[in-house]
Design brief:
By secondary structure, the protein is mostly helical. It has 22 helices and 6 strands. It is globular and about 65 Å long. Bound molecules: calcium ion. Calcium ion (CA) binds next to loops.
Amino acid sequence: MTERTRSHRSLIKAMHGAGRSQPLRHAQHGLAARTLWAAAGLFAAALACQSSTAWAKPDTPELPPSQQESPSPANPATGYSPSAAAAETPSAGAITAITAATTAPASSPASVPSRAAPGQPRHPGGDYGNREEVLQFAQELAQRHGWNAEATRRTLSQARYLPRVAQLIMPPPVGTPKNWAAYRSRFIEPKRLQAGQQFWNAHERLLRKAELRYGVPASLIVGIIGVETYYGKHLGGLRVLDALATLSFDFPSGRSDRSAFFRSELEAFLVWVRREGRAPQDIKGSYAGAIGWPQFMPSSILRHAVDFDGDGHVNLERNMADVVGSVANFLKHHGWIPGLPTHYPVEPPQDAAARAELLAPDIVPSFSTLDMAARGAVLTEQALDHSGPLALVALENGGGQPSYVAGTSNFYTLTRYNWSSYYALAVIELGREVQEARDKARLKAQPAAASAKATKPAKLRSADKNQPG
Ligand SMILES: [Ca+2]
């Protein structure tokens, strides 16, 4: 397999993960048929993006070291659940982590269960208190963390096998064309914009505080939370302990084995709940184990979540300070540069060979503005002032013309949350549109002040015109 083919496969897998969480959430919440239909549409949109080469390539050598050392997206959970794709598309860290796990050595030496028939677990599933590999895993955790082995086994024995999780982790069918316009319309629509404004208004102070501390614009935090979970509407209703145990010990055959990744997430989960003094069976999340409003995988919680209100706990399910601060901190940890735009408009080179050359590194910024211009790309004046590297990012629109943007390193950083250029652009545009709608609403709410500001210059201009000579 060539490097590119391997990368592409990883990208497809990552996308798949992202696209599946939304339908799951809908099913979990038992929504009406209309909603399920909508969820199916979201899923289709996610599928449409799954084979995009715009996805990050976690296993390619082009990735900067800073990204390589952080194998899991925030929402690896989302890794399989982009909120995106809808809601489920975007989980930061999840997708990435899962993808990375295909090439990274397992963090746990526990033996990998042998594979069963496609789509079926090796084991009938469950009975986690008496399985040899679970006992071995419990012993390893106990040794590594100084825990009581029997207590750890008892905790794991409370996990239940979830057949639905094993089904949802399977890859989607291939062949659906990618469509940025369709994907975008799932997230940038009136109801989500309204929910975004409400979230921003309710947490304005926190968003400003996070912006000051981490340099991440409020609009992007609002965009990420909106795409991930529709501002808390799609949190996932499965017990994380069950989901992670199912994927750790009964990972289905028929797709590449990610059980090592999920065992490391199960370990991170147990570390976190122990630290928080919470019962593992009480925590709910997505089918991939992503937790809370920002859909962080447990390893991302350990690495990147912050106690932003200083109450001594990290709670991404209910504490909005921790939610907002953790999203910003995740981006900061992944190289966010304050003040740098995420992308610029660009016209791609007409010449196919030059265009292919610029597209080859995918979303990894690899070309100076001079490099791009020399190959025939047309950049705006603002972009020509940009001093760092850029990536020519193509987003397909079904059978229509692709959309292109020139992504900066900050665009790349956004894809660490969910390894997709479609995800990143949806987050950016949702945040921007929420901001614009909010600004408009605030102007309307202050008619007197607004009209005073608007009419004064007009009167002056009018007066100027009337001046003789
Ligand atoms: Ca807190």
